[in-house]
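Weekly puzzle thread! Below is a chain. First person to post its structure in token form gets bragging rights.
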Amino acid sequence: MKILAIVQARTRSTRFPNKVLQKIKGKSLIELLFSRLARSKMLNEVILATSNLANDNLLVDVVKNLGFGVYRGSENDVLSRYYTAAKYKKADVVVRITGDCPLIDSNLVDQVINKFFRDQVDYCSNVDPPMYPDGLDIEVFNFQALEKSYHLAQKENYREHVTPFIRKSNEFKKSSLGYHTDLSSLRWTVDELVDLEVVKKVFEHFHPNIYFSWLDVLDLYNKYSEIFSINRHLIRNEGMNINTGPKLWKRAKTLIPGGNMLLSKRSEMFLPNRWPAYYSKTEGCKIWDLDGKEYIDTFLMGVGTNILGYSHLEIDNAVRSVIDTGNMSTFNAPEEIYLAEKLIQLHPWANMVRFARSESEANAIAIQVSRAASGKDKVAICRYHDCYLSANLCEDDNLFTELESNRVSKNLSKTVFFFQYNRFDELKKLIQQNEIGVIKMEISRNPDPENNFLHKVRKLATDKKIVLIFDECISGFRQTYGGLHKFYGVEPDMAVFGKALGNGYAITAIIGKREIMEAAQTTFIGSTSWTERIGVVAGLKTLEVMERERSWEKITAIGNHVKDRWKKLALKYSIDIDVWDLPALASFTFRSKNAIAYKTLVTQEMLKNRFLAGNSFYACTEHTLEIIDQYFEFLDPIFSLIRECEDSKDVSLFLKDSICHTSFKKLNMQ
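Winning reply:
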């Protein structure tokens, strides 16, 4: 196994000619770099790769006199220079170092090499995302990746900068050496004259020792930051320009399993390394990230929570009044009664209500109460409800089948049974073969109910004395003022509401028939946090605003309009898509082997125009026709590009990030 470090350098730099031959205390920058790099314990050989132009002859002589090898090739096609040099030297692994990094640390080089082998990847670096000072850039890749890049990379930028194709392509396994503090704003490279002045002061400080570590330099910076101030105005030009959000997301994953509290908000689901990830404020359908950039959310609107828009003044003011008068006490909040009465008024079949604060909690409560009421443990579920049952089961015919599960208890799997939507025969067979006590399902997402499916389920549940639960956490208040079951004229025994109920404030509700709900008294269900006041107050005010504005009609109309324009846009460019889900939760899917790459491309390109977008459009009352027109104005050229990719172009060449994830398989990606 031969590990070869290739240092790329030339003397014909536009900004600073002959920079690598500039001297500090009698030694040229290239000599300092090679001397420091040669102390690596992992490298088998270090060579210079420069151009075959005559003006680089002096550089070649300097390096040869130091005792290092030299390879000469194309000046501008640096990828070709690397490939042919590595092939000539019969390298198995290549370490890429640039000649403008005289402060390169051999120990740090060894760390990246070790991580490359430990992670068993094709490419490893400390620059993607950059966490180290500019000037410590290290990239390690195997020869096979270099060879494939050499043959496939076509863009001039890819040929000039060696690794962009590897970094952006899905064909290679990649990892990165991070650091606990983001130091990417520090500039220790030499691209301009002022950079040389900084590096000179560093070497002069440690003279005659030239083998100080990068941590020694960092310590110097912390003690005498004025030494480094002269080039602070210059912008880092190595790697991507990573904003605050992606950097914080990377940090989050070292502290929080999965990075956050909700899988659907992981950056990996959108743009793995470029998604803004965190917000500083919201208003209407707008979000501001941590860098102050303003975006229009034509995507998930809080993952379906804010159908009245973000930071709704009336709702926020109601919550502020609670903050002023008290959110928690030994007594109960009277608004619990008022909200319960309102929900029962909207759903006359129900007699009682329990509240919680999250959708998972509410569904778990519904299961616990219904099992107690039926006297049976076995549950038949349709769609994705298993996480509420503490049995993360995966069946091929159920929603989110890709979820990689670690079962809480295998015994629980014996009480949970799956059936497909619209397959009444499957449900009937389950009930014939098992003592089912509960049926739990969503009303409709995609497809719509067929052959009187919902009414058949209702009758079967009644005949067999099975508790029927409708999960309305997502569908509630989007197509009717209440549950979607009202639209289809089918009444359950219990229903669960969340998401939109508090317009972004945490409040969920379980409503049901008295004879079912009173079973809650026979099993312990409770939480101090469920008795806080903000949630129920927000719920009451949200329902008031919804009723006054008839919000469900507005967002349904918006969703139908968006769906229609998606279809027209796809027809314009002869792109096959499927349009699905409730109008207010409109979504589409590309019918292509590159579907996920296209979804990523849409998100990437729309983000450039300050739109949060993907293959969904969760409507809110703040989405005006002007915003929708602007959305489609930006979406049009993206569909045009997708048409070109369907014809012949490689979509990976247009992606500046990894392709987004399609599932929840890896819950704690590092």
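Puzzle host: Confirmed. Bonus trivia for everyone else. The CA atoms of residues 306 and 503 lie 5 Å apart.
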